[in-house]
Amino acid sequence: MKIQISVALVGWLFPLLVVAQAVPPPIIDVHLHALPANHQGPPPLAFCLPTTQWPAHDPQRPYAETFMEWEKNPTAVDPYCEDPVWSPTTDDEVMRKTLEILERRNIIGVTSGPLVDRYRAEAPDRIIPGLLFSVGAHPPPLDSVRAWFESGRYAVMGEVTNQYHGITPDDPLFEPYLALAEELDIPVGIHVGPGPPGVAYLGASAYRGRLHSPLLLEEVLLRHPRLRLYVMHAGWPMIDDMLALMWAHPQVYAGVGVISFALPRAGFHSYLRRMVEAGFGNRVLFGSDQMVWPEAVEVAIEAIESADFLTEQQKRDILYNNAARFLRLSEEEQAHHRER
User: Fold this and answer.
1) In the predicted model, what is the mean pLDDT of residues 189-204?
2) Is the pLDDT reported for residue 281 higher than 70?
3) Rounded CA separation 269/258 (Å)
4) How far is Cα 59 from Cα 283, in angstroms, rounded to an integer?
5) Cβ atoms of 250 and 278 closer than 8 Å
6) Rounded to whole angstroms, how far apart are CA atoms 340 and 327?
7) Residue 210: Cβ within 10 Å count
8) Mean pLDDT to the nearest integer, 175-204
């Protein structure tokens, strides 16, 4: 009788145990996008995830042709790319696939882009809305920005894409937005690092490689000592500048961003390893920079999980704990993330 009761009890509890175990540890993606399917060019577009080799360009023809050939027929350009991922062809499909991954992997995404309101309406518990803008191209009026943040429409100022317009972080055009972020205690995520390779020949004519340097943020940080700021793309490839900034300014965090899937895996791991081995593993944030390839989110997660130089605690810190601290999530919010 005792055995029968125990078996029955286990059978009754088993579905509950399965449900309890089915919730994966939460992840915060501090660099997610809500973009139209044609944002990177006419879909579908291919991407090797992670990248194995970038195209070599012959300047006899326009670079846009070389780049589009790589996106449309990557195996012809890169013999190491055996199984490219193709982007969806509609906005709905990009959103649906992205939100499915967020739900399945228990991801909360700091999300910016023209479709962020729609993503948030579809998955309010998964989306932390960010404001995507540049002061170099139709910057939003400061009064509007204040109203948006005070009303809760946005929670993060970012992605800030001034770099694409050749504008440094300490440019006077950007100063009022930084002052507002400090005043309202708004986290700021600023693009400092790689755009598409050769992007200056793809329309962003003011883009410059020297603007990859995180040290360009120093005067901003000193002028706004209470500013919460993270460096998107971690200033790749200028690791020494990134380490110098993190050493000199202990409030700065580095978000790995696009390098988590757009670099060959060994290249990404070597960059991440430098930050961790320098003692900054508690200020590295996971970010996928998912644009129109939803699968990039999971490839970026795998890039962290497969890093054999990280302890399990360091992986959890990068994937969740550091961002929870940076964003100042309450204990109740964190408990909700763990339980859903």
Assistant:
1) 96
2) yes
3) 13
4) 41
5) no
6) 19
7) 9
8) 97
Amino acid 21: pLDDT: 57
- In sequence order, the β-bridge partners of residue 109 are 29, 127
> Phi, psi (5° rounding) for residue 71?
-80, -25
**Cα 211 to Cα 207: distance, rounded to the nearest angstrom:** 8
Residues 93-126: tens digit of each pLDDT: 999 999 999 999 999 999 999 999 999 999 999 9
CA distance 265 to 211: 24
Residue 140 and residue 145: Cα distance in Å, rounded? Answer: 7
- Helix, strand, coil shares of the chain, percent, nearest 5, are 50, 15, 40
**Calpha distance 157→131 (Å, rounded):** 5
Whole-number percent of the chain with pLDDT over 70: 94
C-alpha to C-alpha distances, 142 to 178, 191, 215, 238, nearest whole angstrom: 11, 20, 26, 32
User: At 219, which amino acid appears?
Assistant: E
- CA 292, 297, 302: angle at the middle one, nearest 5? 145
